[in-house]
Amino acid sequence: MRRRRRAFAFLLAAALAAATAAAIADGYGARVSRGYGELRAVVVVATTLPRGRAVDPEAATAALELRRVPARFVPPGALRSAAAAIGLAPIAPIPAGSYLLASQLRSPRPASGALGLGRGRQPVEITVSGAGALLVGGASAAGSRVDVVVTAEPTGAGNGRTYVAAAAVPLLGLAPAADGVEAEGTAVATLGLTRSQALRLIAAESFARKLTLLKRG
What domain range includes position 88? Predict the structure, then answer.
């Protein structure tokens, strides 16, 4: 009987200790939030990422962690999701403990013969919308051909116009925009464009509601 009482007392003490620890942790988190502002989820590198090696799903799980830190300490361009890094390669080694920034990643460059640049084409960077799906498959997206679709702002009482501004152009690279990328966020696409296509798309960036990439089958 005494053994049962002692065991019950021990379990009760352990439960009280766990509840006290949880309350202390919750109180600490609340004090941090009040003292430093809103917490934000960001990706932190747990294991050094080597230069030029694309991040695959296994590496994203093993080498990247999602942490919540005060928003005031988050640098511009910090990724909010490890999935946004899949298929992209660091442009330089990224040490463990660092925030993972959009500016540190690029699509792996395809072989020179796979660029598909014909005469009169040159690499041009264009900001596009809704590139989350392409970024997840970034390694295979680079080197493919895409249509660039422009959605213009509506004029007067009419609807906005949507049209293909450049068809079947080579996609040379794709990277998150400077402020990071969500599933429906923006990205910077490097396209192989003729001069007329480049001028048309650069102009569209200033007046259009969005530019979207559609990958060709």
Answer: 39-105
Q: What is the DSSP string of 57-120?
A: HHHHHHHEEEEEEEGGGPPTTB-S-GGGGBT-EESS-B-TTPBPBGGGEEPPPPPGGGS---TT
What's the mean per-residue pLDDT of the chain?
77
CATH number reported for the structural domain that contains residue 71 in this entry? 3.90.1210.10
In DSSP terms, which residues pair with 129 in a beta bridge? 186, 212
* Greater pLDDT, 112 or 32: 32
* Paired strand residues for 90: 105
The token pair that represents 158 in the structure block: 């009419």
Query: In sequence order, which residues have a C-beta less than 8 Å from that of residue 84 and are 6 or more positions away?
Result: 43, 102, 132, 135, 136, 176, 180, 181, 182
60 Cβ neighbours under 8 A, 6+ residues apart: 82, 83, 85, 86
Is pLDDT above 70 for 148?
yes
Whether residue 95 has pLDDT greater than 90: yes
For 4-62, the pLDDT digits (tens) are 565 555 555 555 555 555 555 555 555 655 666 788 889 999 999 998 888 888 888 89
Domain C-terminal end among 105, 124, 150: 105
Length of the chain: 217
